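Worked example

This section walks through a single chain of length 395. The input is the sequence exactly as stored; nothing has been trimmed or padded.
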Amino acid sequence: MKNIKVLDGNHAAAIGAILSKPDVVAAYPITPQTPLVQHFSQYVADGVMDSTIVEPESEHSAMSVLTGASLAGARTFTATSSQGLALMYEPYFRASTMRLPIVMNIVNREMISPQSVWGGPQDSLTVRDAGWIQIYVEDNQEILDMTIQAFKIAENNDVLLPINICYDGFYLSHMTEGVEVPLQEEVNAFLPPYKPTHVKLDPETPMAVDPLTPGNYLQYYRELHMAAMDNAKRVIKEVNDEFAKKFGRDYFGLVEPYRMEDAEYVLVTLGSLTGSARIAVDLAREKGVKCGLIKIRSLRPFPVDEVNEFLKNAKAIGVIDRNVSFGWHTGIVYQEIKSAISSLDPIPTVPFIGGLGGEDLTTNLMVEALDSVIKAGENKQLENRAHWLINRKGR
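Given that input, the structure is written out below as tokens.
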């Protein structure tokens, strides 16, 4: 019998991490991540969780604690949001360049100013080039499942990189839905204990960590880091396939396609907004229009080959961004897609921006977006200005 519980996204993340048996958890509460830390504290207080939990004075300290713990050979986990991520930027960068397989869930929230606590991936997308693997998920089941998979991906000897599982604040973190919770023995069989081989502090064999490093060595380390990112593409797919075989839930690895078998007009999405875009595709299909959707799951490493394969026959593409790239007048994912398809014959592309600060990206707005994509394709209009998807006026 399936073990299905009604969970919000933060609770699903906490259970996913607990089933993965981290040795050390360090976290500082920040909206909308706070309930996740509360769940951890409660599980520790109830004796359910056999881990060391550290409650530091800031996010900077949380990541610093985990850096030391990971160097000592511990499996580690944390979570943060928005300004908390900004505060931990210095140790965040160090964790990746020291090749420490820390798992950190980011409960996406807008950056200030103006003051905001609502959802949006501006926080994690802004640090996409800090060397972490970044996976973006759509619902609470995917949060739980990917939190478990994250440890296996990060700790693979061909990868050894920290990883973020990113999910939209409030839309997922505080929304409840049915989530199938695996049994502990099933997760034990999927995820063995962590056995570090590349770094481990040991008083019997002292070692220097992070010494002053000249440029020639620095470049060598960066080259190895980028090779590990390439390896991660293969490992993410392998772990997905193994998980699907064992638990029956397949997330397709780096990119999830929807009705792409003969799609001419394609929407590209990231995260929880995918659901309403998927409905817009269904509505267009009912009218006989060949539409499809691809959901980018892995932003780092970016799935260039998969994106090219899915989009090579498209007549027009629309990219839905719940974020902005200041100075480009587009969203960040749009730029990633444009770079990825630069080797293909020119295809009309339309950048969309909407849903900032927790605003809804409704089905009507997705239909509006898809209509614009179809129009751009029919007119063969290669360059299109950013189209703002707006529910209500804020001016």
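What to look for: The CA atoms of residues 26 and 55 lie 6 Å apart.
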